[in-house]
Amino acid sequence: MPLCSRRGADSLGWNARAGCFAGLTRIEKKKKREEPMGNERNTMIRGTTLAAMLAVFAAASAPAQDARKKLELSGTGGWTYSDGVGGSGITVPKVGTFDRIDPENAFTWGVRVGFLLGDNTEVGVLFNQQSTELDISGTQIIALGNLSLRNYHGYFAYNFGGNDAVARPYFLIGLGATQYAPSNVSGGGVTRDISGNRKFSGTTGLGLKLFPNNGTFGIRLEGRWTPTYIKSNAVGWWCDPYWGCYVTSDAQYSNQIEFSGGITVRF
Predict the structure, then answer these.
(1) 112-169, pLDDT tens digit by residue?
(2) Are 155 and 170 in contact (CB under 8 A)?
């Protein structure tokens, strides 16, 4: 039992009891003085904690509000006009002579993800696929087989108007690769698949995004040109007194011109 508790003090002498009661009285008075200060500190801590929570909530919600206007997901569909390349004629006995190979014009579809760096500038990635046929031509046109023509591009775009505009014209330019993946190719009475080949390509386009009532869902309309480098043909020699002589060549590109429309969702 503590010596200066109420019950322990009863077993002491008068002087000891008086000293204990005096000490207890001072402690109780001190506690009474400290209680308001403690309540003030608790109130201050609770207020500070609440303010910090509100600040964290505001900081967390602000980027979320911005992100809903910066991220755009799009799906498109349309029609692509495609051409291939020419070369030296190859003669197939009893069939004909052929000097060109071309994909046919066909339906195309695609998806893309864009991120707005500011009110106008945008970066993103896009994918497109055209499922078509591959033809050779010369004295006649023969379908060799099916062809999946796939484009993979990273792009930079500039959007005109403000971020809250209903209509936003834009242009884009991108770099990447185009994949040619033939299948069911017929030749010499044999049908087989041929492994796809990827070639460096660029893309550039003009388009319009429409957001009725400045909403989340919008409409995208676009025209885009994608040239793909295929090969170079030697066309002669060039000579100069400093670097000597070298072969000059004519680069050949396979072109795709796409007209498409689709849906865009903003987050």
Answers:
(1) 999 999 989 999 999 999 999 999 898 889 888 899 999 999 999 999 998 888 999 9
(2) no
Of 164, 152, 258, nearest to 218 by C-alpha is 164
CA–CA distances in Å: residue 111 to residues 15, 104, 230, 254, 256: 94, 22, 25, 22, 17
Residues 6+ apart with CB under 8 A from 28: none
Q: Is 216 helix (H, G, I), strand (E, B) or coil?
A: coil
Cα separation, 211 vs 263, whole angstroms: 10
What are the structure tokens assigned to 86, written together? 């020419």
The CA distance from 116 to 238, in Å, is 47
Find the DSSP H helices in 71-213: none
Give residue 189's identity as a one-letter amino acid code: G
Q: What are phi and psi of 166, to 5 degrees?
A: -70, -40
Beta bridge partners of 115: 71, 123
Q: What's the CA gap between 32 and 38, in Å, rounded?
A: 10
